[in-house]
Amino acid sequence: MTKQQWFQDLITQLDPSNVKIDEALNLHTMTRMGGIADLFVTPETEDQAAFVVQYSYENDIPLLLLGNGSNMVVRDGGVRGIVLRLENLNKITIVGNKVIAESGADIIDVSRTVAKESLTGLEFACGIPGSIGGAMAMNAGAYGGEVQDVIVQCTVLTPRGEKLVLSKEALELGYRKSVITKKGYYVLSAEFELRPGTQEEIDTKIADLTFQRESKQPLEYPSAGSVFKRPPGYFAGKLIQDSGLQGKGFGGAEVSTKHAGFIVNKNNATATDYISTIEMVKKAVKENFDVELELEVKIVGENQS
């Protein structure tokens, strides 16, 4: 089967404007890097998303869920098969102390939406640059809070396109991991339980965390966010800083001079530049401190031929 055939099959259920052939992924990643996707699909409904997942499974077509492209490095050769992005599934619904957010909603938007309703518990997420789907998959956290602190349940698709509702326990949430990544599930929505709070306290906390983020993180340049997980007993950024790597890198990529845990696309970097800089950092930290840095970002796609 060709990608033209995939296109024809998918538009039996999706609008043709939601199925694009040979789409440049640098338009859809926070790093502003990445090659071409054979097919780039943006369903409008959960049923359409299930159809795409089921279709790819039944026809043995590789399927990559992109999220909002914040925690991913796409190689310069692009991605074969179908890239699925659920950006159109972005509804946020508040019922009492609970909020149901669809996969494509940005967790920043969810955090700020519930804050306006005087609900507390998601302030930690006011600066996390990711979608609800990505936040669930990684048990995203910041400033002392994590998704697992407030999650009730999560609705996912299996790799076969079957819908499941997973309880908090079934999600197996840990430090930057979950059953979602382990079993290759696709998040459709998540339900969180929050608490009534004082509007002034919520607003103050969000303002404080926003200031901390903007003053300490290199938001002026494209990046994949925090590149490495926190090694037990250490801080990745401190190890990288103490290795004297800030400002160093390959091509247009460099270790941020503002926060060593970030690698930024400073000047039209390629994914190859970015990945080479990652490898340089890992090697230096291993040599200097005998610590193996583990990636928090996901590297996908093919090298350029």
What can you see in these coordinates?
This protein is of the alpha+beta class and about 300 residues long. It folds into three domains: about 5-85, Uridine Diphospho-n-acetylenolpyruvylglucosamine Reductase, domain 2; about 90-200, Uridine Diphospho-n-acetylenolpyruvylglucosamine Reductase, domain 3 (2-Layer Sandwich); about 220-300, UDP-N-acetylenolpyruvoylglucosamine reductase, C-terminal domain (Uridine Diphospho-n-acetylenolpyruvylglucosamine Reductase, domain 1). It contains eight helices and 18 strands. The radius of gyration is 20 Å and the shape is globular.
What topology does this entry show?
Elements: H1 3-10, E1 19-24, E2 36-41, H2 46-58, E3 63-65, E4 72-74, E5 79-84, E6 92-95, E7 98-102, H3 107-116, E8 119-120, H4 132-138, E9 141-142, E10 145-146, E11 151-157, E12 163-167, H5 179-183, E13 186-193, E14 195-196, H6 199-216, E15 223-226, H7 236-242, E16 253-255, E17 262-265, H8 271-289, E18 298-300
Parallel strand pairs: 2-5, 3-5, 4-18
Antiparallel strand pairs: 1-2, 6-7, 7-13, 8-14, 9-10, 11-12, 11-13, 15-17, 16-17
Label this structure with key terms.
305 residues, alpha+beta, Uridine Diphospho-n-acetylenolpyruvylglucosamine Reductase, domain 2, Uridine Diphospho-n-acetylenolpyruvylglucosamine Reductase, domain 3, 5-stranded antiparallel sheet, 4-stranded mixed sheet, 8 helices, 29% helix, 25% strand, globular, FAD, EC 1.3.1.98, cell shape
